[in-house]
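This part of the workshop introduces the protein records we will be handling. To make this concrete, we reproduce a full record directly below:
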Amino acid sequence: MTTPKTAKSTLKSTAESTARSTTGTAGNGTRVRRTRPAPEPGPVAGHCDELLHALVAFRDQAGTAQRWGERLAGVLAGGGRLLVAGNGGSAAQAQHLTAELVGRYRDDRPPFSAIALHADTSSTTAIANDYGVDEVFARQVRAHGREGDVLMLLSTSGASANLLSAAEAGRGAGMAVWALTGPAPNPLAAGSDESLCVRAGSTATVQELHLVAVHMVCAAFDAALEDVLEDVLEDRLPGGGSANDDSDA
């Protein structure tokens, strides 16, 4: 992973390499070489530069993603459930996460219970019609969430009213509430048990790093899963013995 110093050096060397040199004549007739600064990056290259800088800062929060993946492995392997919600592009990221857990991230493994709340269109439209948009996720959290489960809420602004209501419902149900947001401070981060906040100036970059966070959590989940499953299996066997223990009682 590129460090902040290395990232800046890379950008500097790139700018220097694209600078243009011109030849002119000084007042005394001596030919001199003048270097014009490289042009400012356009919107496409500038987007990459913004993402690079934001990613460097985001790497410092890798420990939070690691901790979330490990905690999630324990909850889901123990029969718990993950509920995830977001609006717009964040809804797509939420569904991406649940797909990785119900399906798989990299290697084959058992499926686990993970639900993207926006994906039930009949429930969301009925709730919005009967109770208002602010209750779209909160009512589903009260229906599906149980004590010890995990609720993850994604928002680039951290200010969506329906997610704030969902966080309150999750806390009321005894769930662990995690927020994946844009720059802090914001109301959703403040109303959650833990938060992972992206420091970036544009919504697009925040969403791109939310996808990175989703994959980081999945990688930590898979890495922790083998040990967690062994512990769960031992706890469920009579006397706490191992499945490979063939000794006589």
Remarks:
- The beta strands are 20-25, 31-36, 82-86, 114-116, 150-155, 176-181, 194-197.
- The radius of gyration is 24 Å.
- The longest strand covers residues 20-25.
